[in-house]
Structures are given as structure tokens and as C-alpha cells.
Amino acid sequence: MDNILSIKESLVERVKQRRKERNLSQQTLADRSLVSFGSVKRFERSGEISLSALLRIALLLGCENDFTGLFQENFALSDAPQSSPPPAADLVFKRFSVFQDEKVRKIWHDNEWWFCLSDIVETLINSKRQKHYLLDIRRRDHSLARLWPDLTKLLPLDTPRGKHELLCINTLGFFRLVQSMPNKQVESWRLWLAETAYERLCFIEDPLRAVQLAKDLYKAKGYSDRWIAQKLSGAMLREELTASEKEKADKDYLLFMAELSKNIQPIWQ
What we know:
InterPro entries: BRO_N_domain (IPR003497), Cro/C1-type_HTH (IPR001387), Lambda_DNA-bd_dom_sf (IPR010982). The protein is an alpha+beta fold.
């Protein structure tokens, strides 16, 4: 196993087995793990589920040691954070097996990954008419057509004839593009986007869920409870310091403007 997908596949069967041992209904599992009922049903039927949702279910069923062991085995995580973690977009694109065996060219530009559009279309829907396909989508979706110049860029990528500028799209642009693609091959992406949006609404309703999820994810990656506590407390301290500095800056600015007004007013008179 050399990636998160392998870890996820290894855990799916363990989690299903543990649910049967504990004799929990799908509805009970959804309620206790804060995962949508539809996601639990889809997981039981086909094993398709986001890694964060699988993590919450695994923690509920007491499978956290499986997560920790597998992450440490495959990524050799220590108690300290990695110095150069892979960009998040890389992990997003590795989430689906369709990107495991195919070559999607990418380039690091402006502090984010940009992916070759023609490679994405060919990989997702097995189409050799990428330009015509993208043109048809923009003709049908006028909103996407208006956003197109902001979502895409011409960037140098390797080709059989050397480096050439090809049309690329970033992660945000890809998610927008998926919403306009009618093909059934991208349905798993749309379902994942819907599930992620649902989770975000849950976090807005109860922000403590986001804090707990952060703890769970760090724990699953193999970090100790002590390191996690230091990480979260450090983030809170930085936030408090930032807020304090902003408040002080605002006060200093108001005092400065008041003093300036006093000095300028006699000149105006």
C-alpha cells in the first residue's frame, strides 16, 4: 500500500465487520458518527465514502488503532509534523482511482497545482475530442463560459515535442467544471462535493465539530495526543495574538486620526 486509497480500502472491510459485531443499524451509525444517512447507505452498498466520514465511523466503532497503524506503516509518520507535506490538491486527485493509473500532467504555479485540462477530460470520460467537448460544455453553461478566463491558464507542460503551453485548470476550477459535466463518469465527484458541502454546513451549525474532526484527522495520521494538543493550542494562541494586535492597531489608528483632526481643524478655520 502506497497511498491513502490503499489505506481506505483496507479499513472499509474492518469497519463493516465491526458494525456487524456491534449490531448497529445504519441510522444509528449515521446519528452517532455525524455522517449523513445517505453516505452510510452508500458505504454499506458499495464501500464509497469520503475519508473524513470513514474516519468518524471508525472512531465511533473503536477502529482508531487501525487508522494509526496503517498511516504510520505507509507514511512512516513520527511524533513531529512533516516538514514538506504534499499539497492538498494532490491528495484530492488521488482520492479517486481513475487518477491512479492515468497520467494527468500538472504544474506548480502561483502556490497551487494546475492540471492539464485535456488530460482530465480524456481520463474522466475517455474522450479524444477534448477541445470540442469543453467547447460544448461552455455553450450549454453560460455561467461557466463567463468564468472560464478566470478558471483556466495557459501553462508550459511536457509534450512529446518538448515544452508547450497547454490549457490548465486549478482545483477550484476543476470542481466548478465537474458541476457542468453531464457524464455519469463524474457522478462520484458530484456526490463527494455534495457530501463535503453537507459537512461544511454541519461545521457552521456546530463549529466544535470542526475542532473534533481536526483532532481525529491528526490522530489518524499518527500524531500523539500531546502533539495534537500543542498544535491546536498554538493555533488558538496565534489567533488570540492576531486579534489582540488588530484591536491595538485599530485603537492606535483612531487615536492618530483624532490627533490629526485636532491639528488640522485650526488650519481649516
